[in-house]
Recover the amino acids of this structure.
């Protein structure tokens, strides 16, 4: 489960899509950029290949709830 999820706009003009994300997963901190097309670019280390699909699904759900709802 993702913990301590936070996001902020990448640009001062909040009409432009793009967000900086940070969160903890399995007691490790991750940072990423969430692009307007739903793409996720990790800054630094990404979750393991076994966890990646699950983590990205949770991120999409959180972004839908917080940003697009």
């Amino acid at each position: 489960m993702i913990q301590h999820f936070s996001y902020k706009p990448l640009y001062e003009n909040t009409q432009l899509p793009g967000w900086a994300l940070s969160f903890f997963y399995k007691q490790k901190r991750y940072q990423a950029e969430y692009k307007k097309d739903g793409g996720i670019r990790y800054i630094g280390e990404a979750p393991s290949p076994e966890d990646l699909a699950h983590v990205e699904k949770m991120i999409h759900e959180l972004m839908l709830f917080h940003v697009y709802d």
Remarks:
- The chain is about 25% helix and 40% strand.
- The radius of gyration is 12 Å.
- The first strand starts at residue 2 and ends at 9.
